[in-house]
Amino acid sequence: MADLKRKRGRKPKTVVDNSADAAGISSKEALDDGVLCVTPVETATTNGDPQTHRRGRGRPKKGGKHEEEVDWDIAASPERRGHRFADHNGDITTVLSGDLRHGAELAAVAAAAKAAPSMDAVVKVFCVHTEPNFSLPWQRKRQYSSSSSGFIIGGRRVLTNAHSVEHHTQVKLKKRGSDTKYLATVLSIGTECDIAMLTVNDDEFWEGVSPLEFGDLPALQDAVTVVGYPIGGDTISVTSGVVSRIEILSYVHVSTELLGLQIDAAINSGNSGGPAFNDKGKCVGIAFQSLKHEDAENIGYVIPTPVIMHFIQDYEKNGAYTGFPIIGIEWQKMENPDLRLSVGMAHNQKGVRIRRVEPTAPESNVLKPSDVILSFDGVDIANDGTVPFRHGERIGFSYLVSQKYTGDDAQVKVLRKSKILEFKIKLNAHKRLIPAHIKGKPPSYYIVGGFVFSAVSVPYLRSEYGKDYEFDAPVKLLDKLLHAMAQSIDEQLVVVSQVLVADINIGYEELVNTQVIAFNGKPVKNLKSLANMVEACKEEYLKFDLDYNQIVVLQTKNAKAATSDILAMHCIPSAMSDDLRT
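The line above is the sequence of Protease Do-like 9; the predicted structure tokens follow.
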């Protein structure tokens, strides 16, 4: 499972300084991979200088992987995350052959013809990105440019992928057949669903263009046509295929698991954000990633209309993107008959057992470990965690949760000690101890006595340990990434990121990415609380209790006095990030 790499389809362009290496990807790699991603978070460069990867104590790397594979940020594959959100759609894989394949090809040609009038609504997206430097959080990385696709919808708005405009400093749009690029404004970015909404203030941009209409969720074998501006040319491109699978899948951008379409039409770099049309010329999805594996060919993924409409309606309802809610539990299948008998389930009862409940989830007040969830909003849940979807199809019950909005209520029926109970729970967004994304905000940091303290996130781990951070990062950090639950909404995992060598910190130079447990005997809840405690400290010593039973002790007066000289030596503008000052 881990060898199946899903790739996002943003087309790379040249780095602003015309250096391919500044983006971390050589020209040869661009030709070899075909599907190429350009985000410099994957690289080990800082302002153009090579950066040594940190020593890791994590799991060994998996073998059998081609060196030229670009491993994009899959923070948690369904297999690795167990059954926390592991969903199934049965064995619905359609293989077309002979006359059936020929008929599908004819349908695809017809779909392309129907989509032709709508192609004027497909635009090319040009973006200049300036990403944070998580290893040196007081500065940003060198800017680079990329191009992708998008399309016009009603209300003078344009949709594209979130990763296409991530960490944007400037976004421009160009219509088909036009030589003018129009400045665009980013209205909203949905990190979980990998969708972004843009607009253009110039009235000229909207002249002579009709917005696309959305169609229903397609069925298996339905013809689809993907339109966009992929790598290999500058003009619009059309590829055709059929829907081969519909299921819950992992969205590469932040490893959220939502409904997705698998198609056999080619999705290459630059196709990201482009529409997928049905045979009636209506948009049924947004191209956003593809699967690269030696045993797989022409496997692309499309964000379907239910997810798109959820994003749009969420923005229209709240004026901002609030995200997809979850039911904050980890659950276990109940397929074993002895297991079902042990919890008092009758022969006609089905459901899933709650292993753990997120302490930060609103439902933690009513749901308990070992409860068996029998139904969600009146829909019965099977022993494998699936619910009926369409004729002949089943899908993970998290699909029902994802149809809700943040703050919505849901009715849950549970079996507890052989008694059936019903609860009304409020759904909320997921709070992770190690977040998968910082949603465009700059990383936080605090420096005292040369010790750089940071809050851990998935982008931080990727910056420190590269694309294989899941195997190279320290075991304890990986354990917290995979299994730890935040005990409060504002809890963070704080580490000593590095030590800026000075006389005051002699003997501590080798400390790297070690968790801070307590300061002067008080637990460290988050980075801001640590900074506040250190700044207000009147005791003689600053004592930091670290993981692995290590301690750091500095004289308070000397450490604070040396901090300004250390900042000046390394050209650091401030001892703390702006968000810690408020």
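Note on the example: The first strand starts at residue 5 and ends at 8. The first helix runs from residue 27 to 33.
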